[in-house]
Amino acid sequence: CKHTDLDSAEYWECHVRNLATTLFHPVGTARMGPADDPRSVVDARLRVHGIERLRVIDASIMPNIVSANTNTPTMMIAEKGADLVKEDWRKKERVEL
Prior knowledge:
Layout: H1 9-19, H2 71-96
């Protein structure tokens, strides 16, 4: 951006185009919601709508990105997801016995 005048609109456009980057913390690509919401992918138990025995248990279910690193909330989602899977298997075992 040396070819532009310091603090000009062209200078800042050059910086944005050349230096802007992502931190690769995408979230919200598998929205949680009711099955009748065409934008939702999973239900409250993290099960994918319309597909049996498939869950999404990661940062993609977050409706909004957090203001810090997504690692801790993602671990919390994983812990909760593991609990949900165990609960469902326990219920299934009781019914089949």
